[in-house]
């Protein structure tokens, strides 16, 4: 008997969507934990912490953004927000609350599974990667642990993967497209707004001095920070 796949919390109040997600994810090898309200999702996540979450933006007792915020209080699991609203402001609001991805309904099953798998890969680690220390910033790439001036800082899986990508080529300018493709995948090559939100969140958590902007082009990790 094969081992169960990653547990995914799915929260949506539309019965048809919830049923479709259950079928899609189970066929892809995931174990599904279902919820129809924000409170139900938070309760089930607390009782049996999932490996990832897929949350609808509009819920009968709140919204997916608040669910993201409350999950982020104790968990770094990948979170994908689903929404029928494709407005950029809503996307930015969800990402700023800690979501790793934002998918607009209607969505294709293969796209959803691919994005979920990519988010879970970003949450994984490579045991052979070294630790990096730069001017008060310590990043244990294998353990996915970040310290700033000795204090631990909690990053989302996507924020950590963005930091890791910049650190691997520190000092080198990486274009928006290079970063988006490396961290999110080729489908995101033009989604600069997503990148800007995550860079802003990362700077807020570790300090702005480490990541330099080349306006209109991209970002680089400055290994001379503070020097």
TrEMBL record:
A Gene Ontology molecular function term of the record: cis-regulatory region sequence-specific DNA binding
Keywords, in A-Z order: Cytoplasm, DNA-binding, Phosphoprotein, Transcription, Transcription regulation, Two-component regulatory system
PANTHER family: KDP OPERON TRANSCRIPTIONAL REGULATORY PROTEIN KDPE, REGULATOR OF RPOS
Keyword match Transcription: yes
CDD domains: trans_reg_C
OmpR/PhoB-type domain residues: 129-223
GO CC list: cytosol; protein-DNA complex
Origin organism lineage: Bacteria, Bacillati, Actinomycetota, Thermoleophilia, Solirubrobacterales
Name by which UniProt lists this protein: Transcriptional regulatory protein KdpE
Positions bearing 4-aspartylphosphate: 56
Pfam families (alphabetical): Response_reg, Trans_reg_C
Domain Response regulatory: 7-120
GO biological process, one term: positive regulation of DNA-templated transcription
Localization in the cell: Cytoplasm
DNA-binding region in chain numbering: 129-223
